[in-house]
């Protein structure tokens, strides 16, 4: 069975700092990778996704993530964070063999941005 | 607004009560899901429906009973719950199984069992 690890449980940064949130997965086959974000009091929404092609994917609000197959990683990055980025971030893995109905999520990383 | 609407947003129920959570999607999707989100735990997939048929039951206790009358509506019937069932219950939908697409989530129902 696949699993997802997010090692940073709570990250605190000042505005304009650079961000990198780690995500590692364990699954030997072809994977689809996702980052979801949950702003306080709001629903989970998709930040970005990787299905195939360029391993560097760009998402909304200036976020990007890089799929490194050899490291089983899909880290999320943003060069300069804003206070409005305060939220919880979830990495998830799915796959063409098991589709989205078996998305496996990490435990999430809470990001707090200090003005 | 995600196109996936869940009601109620908050629910407090006793262990002997029976209640239902409702989810409705306006996205034309054919797959719908229930997830459980507990503090400090990964989101747990509970049930999956494709074209109204249940295709996944992730070892969920029988005190949780899903119902999918059509592709746009999904219910989760609750009875004789335990305090440890208190959590945020999320509904999601996506296009049919096997298609490379993302899931869209509702805002969730915050359930407290007392």
Describe this structure in words.
The complex is a heterodimer of chains A (115) and B (114). Chain A has 115 residues and is mostly beta strands. Chain A is built from no helices and 12 strands. Chain A has strands at residues 3-5, 10-14, 19-21, 24-26, 32-38, 44-50, 56-58, 64-68, 73-78, 87-95, 99-105, 109-114. The model of chain A has no long low-confidence stretch (mean pLDDT 91). In chain B, β5 and β6 (53-57) form a beta hairpin. Chain B is built from no helices and 11 strands. In chain B, the strands form 2 sheets. In chain B, strands 2, 4, 5, 6, 9, 10 and 11 form a 7-stranded mixed β-sheet that branches. Chain B starts with a strand and ends with a strand. Chain B has 114 residues and is an all-beta fold. Chains A and B meet through β5, β6 and β11 of A and β5, β9 and β10 of B.
User: What is the chain-wise order of helices and strands of chain B?
Assistant: EEEEEEEEEEE
Question: What characteristic shape of chain A results from the CA principal axes?
Answer: globular
Helical content of chain B (DSSP H or I, runs of 4+): under 10%
| Strand tally of chain B | 11
| Overall pLDDT level of chain B | 91
Quaternary structure state of the chains depicted: heterodimer
The average pLDDT of chain A is 91
Helices and strands of chain B: which structural class?
mainly beta
The profile of the biggest β sheet of chain B is: 7 strands, mixed
How would you spell out the order of helices and strands of chain A? Answer: EEEEEEEEEEEE
Continuous helix count of chain B: 0
| Portion in strands of chain A | over 45%
Straight-line N-to-C gap of chain B: 31 Å
Separation, N- and C-terminal Cα atoms of chain A: 41 Å
- Figure out the total of helices of chain A: 0
- Radius of gyration of chain A from CA coordinates: 14 Å
How large, in whole angstroms, is the Cα Rg of chain B? 13 Å
